[in-house]
Fold this protein.
Amino acid sequence: MPEIRLTRTIDFSTSLRYWNPALPAEENRRLFGARASQHGHNYQLSVTLRGEPDPLTGMVMDVKDLQAILDREIMARFDHRDLNLDTPYFEKEPPTPENFVLLIRRLLLAALPPGSLDHLRLQEDPETYVEWFEPAEGRA
Amino acid sequence: MIALTRRYHFPAAHVLASRHLSAEENARTFGKCANPAGHGHDYVLEVTVSGPVDARSGCILPREQLDALVAKRVLDRFALRMLNEDPVFQQRVPTAENICHVIHEELADPIARTGARLARVRVEETRRNAFAYGELR
């Protein structure tokens, strides 16, 4: 069977400030400028899985099941929350889109069928997005 | 592999014509894009960098630094200009393909000096035409 890619996109609205708790306040303001103040974004996350469609259902993964994972792992944790104040993930590093997409990867790798994750695209604002490309050797 | 992309905009004019072709040949090759008076586009530029994420800043490349490089090397030079007047387009037709390649040439070394890698340059000439140079993985 051919390998097919499936992409599901979700939107969530979240506040944050770019802040590295290991650094003094002045250094944070120097590093991050205006983004060191609390602000917010309409994030857009696209999750791409790859795999062979199931011979019976014709699906790589039922999109309903994928959405349920995204609701549990991403929406419940981050939608209408503050990344610094409401989550435990940024006590040692700033919630830049780079660090955020790496966190999302860890959360999804633990929840998705092994070897299925292919690509993540996290859009922070209309001018900025980060992507994660899962290495081929990481897939089952 | 992780990559960061920033989007920029620059309006510019150009004429698609090669100095190695006659006026008739240019008109035949490039059609209405060869109008000698010029025409213009709101170009959208996407610059993608990859590399390790710095532990202090949480960034592949601080975006102020990337924005400043792109402004100095690309936007200040091409925005609100006639591209055919730029020295780089004296020997190359300013097609979006060549614009992509020129921007990649301009940015690759300065970005490499920061420790990041220029992974891709993508140019949208209109909503219906997009061009990219460089490999993401």
User: Anything to note?
Assistant: The beta strands of chain A are 4-16, 39-51, 117-125, 128-133.
